[in-house]
Amino acid sequence: MERVPALDEPLKKSLGPATAKVMAEALDLHTVGDLLHHYPRRYAERGELTTLADLPLDEHVTVVAQVADARVHTFNGSKGRGQRLEVTITDGSGRLQLVFFGKGVHKPHHDLLPGTRAMFAGKVSLFNRRLQLAHPAYELLRGEDGERTDTIDVWAGAQIPIYPATTKLESWKIAKAVDAVLPSAVDAVDPLPDALREGRGLAELPDALRLIHRPRTKADIALARERLKWDEAFVLQVALARRRHADTQLPAVARRPVPEGILDAFDAKLPFTLTDGQRKVSKEIFDDLATDHPMHRLLQGEVGSGKTMVALRAMLAVVDSGGQAAMLAPTEVLAQQHHRSVTEMMGELAEGGMLGGADGATKVVLLTGSMGTAARRQALLDLVTGEAGLVIGTHALIEDKVQFHDLGLVVVDEQHRFGVEQRDALRGKGKQPPHLLVMTATPIPRTVAMTVFGDLETSVLDQLPAGRSPIATHVVPAADKPHFLTRAWERVREEVGKGHQAYVVCPRIGDEEDQKKKAKASAEDQAEKRPPLAVLDVAEKLRTGPLTGLRIAVLHGRMHPDDKDDVMRRFAAGELDVLVATTVIEVGVNVPNATAMVIMDADRFGVSQLHQLRGRVGRGSAPGLCLLVSEMPEATPARQRLAAVAATLDGFELSRIDLEQRREGDVLGQAQSGVRSSLRVLTVIDDEEVIAAAREEATALVLADPDLTAHAGLRTALDALLDKDREEYLEKG
User: Fold this and answer.
1) Minimal CA–CA distance to 30: which of 229, 164, 177?
2) 407-413 and 388-393 strand pairing
3) What values do phi and psi take at 401, rounded to 5?
4) How far is it, in rounded angstroms, from Cα 517 to Cα 511?
5) Pairing between strand 117-127 and 60-77?
6) What pTM was estimated for this model as a whole?
7) Which of 21-25, 131-135, 538-542, 656-660 has the highest mean pLDDT?
8) Pick from 32, 40, 37: nearest CA to 215
9) pLDDT tens digits along 148-198
10) How far is the CA of 172 from the CAs of 14, 70, 136, 178, in angstroms?
């Protein structure tokens, strides 16, 4: 029988069934290798103790502190006389009370003498307005000889690992389990090639595992973390490099614009000059389209940077070559908006087969789920015959009955709104794999682009077209300063008085569907002071209150598509003054005359989402104004988030802030399905240099050895990283 490699040994064998069961259930750790890669969250120095001053209420904590005082109190209860042990511990920054009751007082009373140092773990609660731990678990800190000692000399400088723990499994129990399996670290298979490891002066893997769990100094921790960060970055980048390499092996039809074709005709009728950024990015895309393997490119750019123009020119290049191009939009409102703006920009070039259509014109069709039967049938016919060179639609494009004559390019707008399966299904509609252009207006820090979108080449549009106006953003603290909110509505009236228009954005719709959701809401949600403000309620209050007399309409996702389209048309035509909407206007809606936006309960939205919403104003020649209304107190993280949005218009800076606050989920895209993150020591936001260097090394290695035949350890690490779900995620890209 084949011997199980040491790190694949089930924990049941090393630790016994009871401990192994808790490890599996509480921490998802199953093998010796899993446990060795469960790294300490932080380290307490024996001599420089953990801070008690900032303990979070209702959280399970582990603290290292010294007993200052211990007293037994006798009291009369319903069952006669009882005892309560109160122990006060301190770490120099603060004091904390521990309480033990009944028969549970005897052992701690014996162990926890004044001057004793120990680790304590429990849930922080509040009693008589003081923080306390009731019946905490504890572990006395002992000297090298096994006896308890209180001399600082013995403890100073030594690092105590504090592990991510649970109520069922305290940090020191995890530490003891690690002690039991740590000798197996010598059998760890190294994923880094020797030349790379030696060239970069990195520790060997067994040493790094030993040092991260049992460091003697801070230098040990730094050495171990640097090595383990490289493991995570390099293995991930190899997975992505192999994906990119595999893409270059796929066949695709090269798509080149033809001289004096539809692209040239379109460029000739443009009433403005393309920005340098648009020209540069277009060249990158055209170079990719001209190759005989599929383009996989991410186009990111600020709201209003002209991504749609770049994408349309790429689509026309494909039409020139005899192919078709499809643009996938996340909502019907956005699909209709794109269809309207594309046909307006193209003019007679979009009237192929119609009276008045230009020579060489093509047809631009819209395909959404709510279209009437006749219009839908005609659109499907135009696609399968090749009559329509361009199609713009929602996920309705993905349905089985949709067939193309020759699909050459897929443009996905607002990438984060689509699942992998949806993109994959559309790409599968080409006779050969079509080229893929993914667009996002959510700026992505470079490190995230290299990891989350690491299988895509990246183009960045960071230059706004001429004529775009600045947007002033202010926080309106509605609870502290209600007169600020009154002034906000006055500002809206002033903008309308100048002939402009305004948006009011709310987090909720406010109809029966909302009520049903509210009924199902968790107890935690019910406990909130009030539900988020709703479009229907706010619109009514504005009509009868501060904005009375103005032309106000509502827009939200549950309206009939024809009604939504009608409202958007009227707003775009200037027939409405104020649009009260949900985030359905977040992307793609383009009304240059809209200059003001009031976002109600702005603290309910994420940083990037607020930045996206704000980008709907200031799209014309008049300056934009965005007011972030919140009832949250000034010192809260929510208000700090809003202050950050108000302080800068730099989307890349805001995306960093957003990521720092949320921390990264699983970079392979599985966070939403509950799969544990593949990153433990690497942080996408802070470790840019490591990620960039690992990407370079990985690309070179995969180019030289695509099947990793000479790198058995790396293949093993890849298999561990790419479980079935993640493998599929990468496969579908």
Assistant:
1) 177
2) unpaired
3) -70, -10
4) 10
5) antiparallel
6) 0.66
7) 538-542
8) 40
9) 444 334 444 467 888 887 777 888 788 889 999 999 888 888 899 999 999
10) 17, 23, 13, 10
